Amino acid sequence: MAKKDYYRILGVGRDASAEEIKKAYRKLALQHHPDRNRDNPEAEERFKEASEAYSVLGNSEKRQIYDQYGAEGLRAGAGGGSDFGFFSDSIFSDFGDILGDMFGFGGSFSGRGQRRGPRKGSDLGLEVTLTLEESFLGVEKEIDVEREANCGACDGSGSEPGHGAEVCRTCGGSGNVRVSRGFFSMATTCSACQGSGKTISHPCKKCRGQGRQRERKMIKVTFPAGIDEGNRLRVTGEGEGGRQGGSPGDLYIVVRIKPDKSFHRQGNDLLMQLPISFSQAALGDLVSIKTFEGTEKIKIPPSAQNGQILKIRNKGFHHINRWSRGDLLVQIHVVTPRNLSRQESELFTKLREIEVGEGKSLFENDLVN
Q: Are 194 and 244 in contact (CB under 8 A)?
């Protein structure tokens, strides 16, 4: 018996990539599938050959053995058996993808049906807006969540209390049915029970047999101090209810921060502007400022400049999951007075005369220095 050349069968070179091999098999499977070649007795044999070749070359480990020892090496490693003893779990998945796309099979290869039993509920997501102060200090909020939950009357079974679900007569409780297409047998989800293996003859009146209902629930959520725009919190078990006794999904909360008129966030630093007078800027001063945590005293140095930033360490935002904090940054804003009193006007006039007498303005002095 002549040795089979799997590369020749698929029409690819020995240096072909995995994608090229898959593409070549897809083309041959489409060309020679028995359902499309009922009048061609050789089609099924060629289809089998192509499938056998792909079962080897489509698997990196088997391909390596084949390249070194040929088909005999594969049979020896498998302990003998038929030509189709080479199929593996990974290759079944590829066949299911390729043939399912081409010929409309549902599910996967024979013996691999729709997953049954308890299924975890879907996760939920929502956005919550906090004030900058709430994000700075941390806050606990009650969040209104609307979701699908197990029906309280039937406990999620879908059956009227006192009645149980029955074994599906279509699939015999397996949750899937087999459909044959020429050489292959494929498993598809049972349409009668949707893969559950059971049917309900006495639907629950409250949920109409669905086993689930919409509900609204208030959930307490703690937002830690220092939480920032775009941060996401996970609340375990507060998503959609599970199916067939499965655990519920999770709730994911994305944080948005409302702008504040007095403070701004800069990384983990808290930034604010401090309006001061000309005299405070020139002579310096000790002032009190109100922050989210109370009152802080800050010393304005003599000759302070407009836009200058003063720092109070460890009074900024908390680093989440760390003990350290950012700083409080106080930016000086020198305010030009309006509606001067007579005495103020006289003083500023005298100040200007002094500047002119010295031949330079204060601003010119700054430029020279």
A: no
Tokens of 63: 């391909």
Which tokens belong to 23? 């593409």
- In the numeric block, the tokens 């700075």 are attached to 136
Instruction: Convert the pLDDT of each residue in 42-73 to its tens digit.
Output: 877 888 888 888 888 988 888 888 888 787 76
Nearest of 266, 268, 275, 267 to residue 331 by alpha carbon: 275
Contact 77/66 with Cβ under 8 angstroms? Answer: no
Neighbouring CB atoms inside 10 A of 208's CB total: 11
CATH number of 263-368, picked from 3.30.450.70, 2.160.10.10, 2.60.260.20, 3.30.2290.10: 2.60.260.20
Other CB atoms within 10 Å distance of the CB of residue 43: 19
Stated pTM of the model:
0.58
CB distance 253 to 221 below 8 Å:
yes
Rounded CA separation 136/273 (Å) = 17
Choices 2.60.40.1180, 3.40.50.300, 1.10.10.10, 1.10.287.110: CATH for 6-104: 1.10.287.110
